[in-house]
Amino acid sequence: MKLNRNIETFLGCEKEYDNANIVLFGAPFDSTASYRPGTRFAAKTMRSESYNMETYSPYLDKDLAEDSAVFDGGELELSLGDTQKTLRIIYEYTKNLLFDHKLPFMIGGEHLVTLGAFKAVAEKYPDVHIIHFDAHADLRNEFLGTPFSHATVLHRCHDIIGDGRIFQFGIRSGEKAEMLWGNEHVYTRKFDFIGLDEIITKLADKPIYFTVDLDVLDPAVLPGTGTPEAGGVSFNELRTAMQKVAALNIVGTDMVELSPPCDLSGMSTTVALKLLREYLLALSTK
């Protein structure tokens, strides 16, 4: 697949396609949002607002423009009224990136978009495991009458890979039934990242899909999300945890559930951008 660089790019993500090892792209879809929509605007808003951010990271002493090779693929054209078509488009795009030996990095969008990308990753890497940071378990078998929802996405991923291969951290919300189901089928650490180091050691030789729902952050840090939940982690806790996971064999990844219209101050977008910079550098320099 031959792509041309997006005209407006994320700051520092300006490599040509052939010279990049990471491809960043937006999946503007929020049609199953059950509380506050707006995540369809996340990647576009982040891209525009990134020009207020430095490319240099004082945490890692690295520069996004100099020490990474990231191509910005822009926004996918998705069907907001057709969930299955949207998932197919994301799947096909991700599959093409993997064929070209690129690391797909998707910016959602609601969390259901993960399913399209993960399906493609799981086909190429049958032994793939998932590390999932989130306030919500997302393990319901159906929600509001559909099996395809932001609240069911990790159950649908489980349908693909089965027991013992999904590891969740930061979970602090869900219905009792899905939590009980999760106790039998996935690893769940509630409220924080304690135990992450042990899981990283356990998965050191495995291909990893890493999905980060930004509502894992406390809403005092990031109120701009569709389903905020009090009691979340801090910015530095999340930044450090993401940096640790980045040292693994990441074969696909995403950052989802930023809803810029839910925080007119713009601070949630700023927080998401800083996490994006740090994570991209950690992926690029390991």
How are the secondary structure elements laid out?
Blueprint lengths: L21 E6 L14 H8 L6 E2 L4 E2 L6 E6 L7 H17 L3 E6 L4 H12 L4 E5 L19 H9 L4 E6 L4 H10 L1 E4 L5 H7 L4 E7 L21 H12 L2 E8 L10 H19 L1
Parallel strand pairs: 1-4, 1-5, 5-10, 6-7, 6-9, 7-8, 9-10
Antiparallel strand pairs: 2-3
Helix pairs in contact: 1-8, 2-3, 3-4, 7-8
Range of strand content: 15-25%
Measured between the Cα atoms of the first and last residue, the distance is 26 Å
Mean pLDDT: 95
The CATH topology corresponds to: Arginase, Chain A
Which sequence of strands runs across the widest sheet? 4-1-5-10-9-6-7-8
* Beta-strand segment tally: 10
* Structure classification: alpha/beta
Q: Can you say what the CATH homologous superfamily is?
A: Ureohydrolase domain
Radius of gyration: 17 Å
Report on the architecture of this protein.
The protein contains eight helices and ten strands. With 286 residues, the protein is of the alpha/beta class. The chain has one domain (17-285): Arginase, Chain A, CATH 3.40.800. Strands 4-1-5-10-9-6-7-8 form an eight-stranded parallel beta sheet, with helices on both faces. The chain has a two-stranded antiparallel sheet with strand order 2-3. Strand 9, helix 7 (235-246) and strand 10 form a beta-alpha-beta unit. Helix 3 (113-124) runs parallel beside helix 4. The model has no long low-confidence stretch (mean pLDDT 95).
